[in-house]
Amino acid sequence: MFDSIQKLTVNGGGSIDGNGNIWWQNSCKKNKKLPCKNAPTALTLYKCNNLVVEDLTIKNGQQIHIQFQNSANVRVSGLNVTSPEDSPNTDGIHVTNTQNIQISNSIIGT
Questions:
Q1: What does the alpha-carbon distance between residue 30 and residue 20 come to, in Å, rounded to a whole number?
Q2: pLDDT tens, residue order, the chain (110 aa)
Q3: Domain 2-27+40-109 adopts which CATH fold?
Q4: pTM over 0.90
Q5: Which of the ends of the chain has fewer CB neighbours closer than 10 A, N or C?
Q6: What b/e string do you get for 45-64 counting C-beta neighbours within 10 Å, with b at 16 or more?
């Protein structure tokens, strides 16, 4: 999680693997006998302003791949977000209370 960062750029063709397989096996969405718990987010940007996220791959997020929360002036481009078809309720990009966000040239498959 990035908290209260100004003028952050995440760029360069890297990859984040959320290792969701372990979480999904124990998910109440796959096994109704198990308790539901909040799953971790692969990448959270909280109270961040003037952000650039470019050319990044995020795969197998436990529940949310990337989250922008309470942030402003965000530019996202070249994002590749994937998880298997049978993964339970994985959000690609989750935007909450964020102003002036632009997402372009990205592939989201969750």
A1: 13
A2: 999 999 999 998 889 999 988 888 877 777 777 777 777 889 999 999 999 999 999 999 988 999 999 999 999 999 999 998 888 878 899 999 999 999 999 999 98
A3: Pectate Lyase C-like (2.160.20)
A4: no
A5: N
A6: bbebbebebbebbbbbbbbb
